[in-house]
Amino acid sequence: KSRSGCEALKVVARCRPMSRKEEAAGYERVLELDVKLGQVSIRNPRAVPGELPKTFTFDAVYDASSKQADLYDETVRPLIDCVLQGFNGTIFAYGQTGTGKTYTMQGAWTEPEKRGIIPMSFEHIFTHISRSQNQQYLVRASYLEIYQEEIRDLLAKDQSKKLELKENPETGVYIKDLSSFVTKNVKEIEHVMNLGSQTRSVGSTNMNEHSSRSHAIFLITIECSETGPDGEEHIRVGKLNLVDLAGSERQSKMGTHGERPKEASKINLSLSALGNVISALVDGKSTHIPYRDSKLTRLLQDSLGGNAKTIMVATLGPASHSYDESLSTLRFANRAKNIKNKPRVNEDPKDTLLREFQEEIVRLKAQLEKRGMLGKKRRRSSRRKKMVDGEGTTENEGDDDNEDGLEKNMENYLKEQKERLEEEKAAIQDDHNLVSEEKQKLLQEKEKMIEDLRKEQEATELLATKFKAMESKLLIGGRTIVDHTNEQQKMLELKRQEIAEQKRREREMQQEMLLRDEETMELRETYTSLQQEVEIKTKKLKKLYAKLQAVKAEIQDQHDEYIRVRQDLEEAQNEQTRELKLKYLIIENFIPPEEKNKIMNRLYFDGEEDQWKFQPLVPTGGSQMKKRPTSAVGYKRPISQYARVAMAMGSHPRYR
């Protein structure tokens, strides 16, 4: 972390084992990982003899024998601790289809040793809350996916509804109408996760039997209230984005038909936009960062160069048939580690739900206390009246001072009032001196009083229920601690954290020593003869020549990669052109010219939502129809009349 408050994006690489299918096909292994140095070497299976493997250095690397807990303790745990302190955090897995992104993020939920980052972070968050003291927490969870550039709420009842991206100057980019559930323990948040996972888009391809066909983001918002040194209540809000990206794919390797090629095209376009954003951030010369090129990059805007601590897990396939994809992933990750973020604690934001809950609880408590005090006064006056009338009571007068609680107080008061009214009603019926009309009138009054009392009882019970429900949503640290067991567990976690930190420091020191050794070797060398000097310098020359050849090969590889990406984009463009031509034909042959003109006159482009919209048929704010916006939010975009009509057809119910 630099002095200016900037922090580099943390990048780790993870390689899965060879699959049975790859072993049966006879593919060779092209990846070598040095865990101690944090390096990944990849060998080109089509390379000429003597060509050196390409080497990449990351913050950490995990080979096929690594455990889920190793990755979490060394890399993820420090970030979750920061989120609990009020920072924003993002963890996302990037790589080719079938390299273990979903396994790394979710794992096997039923097997403790194979649980991924997401379930382990749930345990971490609620364990921390249970151990905290004098703090109130509110934990909320949301789950969404981006499928074919459309945002879907995985927890909503209506799965067909497409959500819109909005931007607020204070809070940044957010999703309008995204559902959020308050969770009080690990079981509840896991239930939310499982519900969303059931509706996520998955499919089978040649690369993976259960391939994710969408980008999924599980968002956890943690609000913490604590009394500061100034005696005031301060709220910190940490947001954790757990992102499971869909895999990058080559159309030729997928072996799919129907919707799969279209899905792959959209996935590759959004990942290409992500790569462009990273390139622009790393470049330093770019004045414009293309966050708006895709919904994924807009949602990750804070995570890439903004207010967040970010970890990227690059997942790799070791087999020779995945060489191109693995090399592309390594280059992508190598660029990403140069991104600088500016994380800060989110303290006392205006839109915290925790503050709303606290204020509502105080209001409900005040109403209940008001009803309770009223109950005391009425009971005392009732008793005094009975004493005056000679109907003495044997009840203990000290009961008012020794109440078991507000709820019992109210229950006793309401019961007492009901009994008194029933007694008075019976007395009126037994009184033969009253005229029947007066008796009827008095009985009606008493019936009304009994009904009012019943309504008051229902209102009080409703208030008490609401109060309990609101209070139960707030998690108070320290209430559910089994001291001895938790202390041992806490010590064990601290030791594991110390070991992970020590490994990280050792890795950094080894990387630094390696660099220094290369720089100082020439200074330390002495020669006993001219022949020895010639031999050593010849070796150096050969080494430098090999490096030159490696750089040339890298340039050629980059060019080949550019050609491949360009071909994929051209395929996507051709597919969109075919769709557009089809719509042109429909417009020409099936839509009357006057209807087409009506559609064109009502269309305008909304720059904020990046889509074409219709002007309302009925004016909303005045006698005339609202003019088309021409500001940066909504502006006219030059486009052919047929294209405008074709784009509008997708959202117009008449032409679906």
TrEMBL record:
One of its GO terms (cellular component) is cytoplasm. InterPro entries: Kinesin-like_fam, Kinesin_motor_CS, Kinesin_motor_dom, Kinesin_motor_dom_sf, P-loop_NTPase. Residues 373-386 have a biased composition (Basic residues). CDD domains: KISc_KIF3. Residues 407-575 form a coiled coil. One of its GO terms (molecular function) is ATP binding. Keywords: ATP-binding, Coiled coil, Cytoplasm, Cytoskeleton, Microtubule, Motor protein, Nucleotide-binding. It is found in: Cytoplasm, Cytoskeleton. It holds the Pfam family Kinesin. GO terms for biological process: cilium assembly; microtubule-based movement; mitotic cell cycle. Belongs to the TRAFAC class myosin-kinesin ATPase superfamily. Kinesin family. This is Kinesin-like protein.
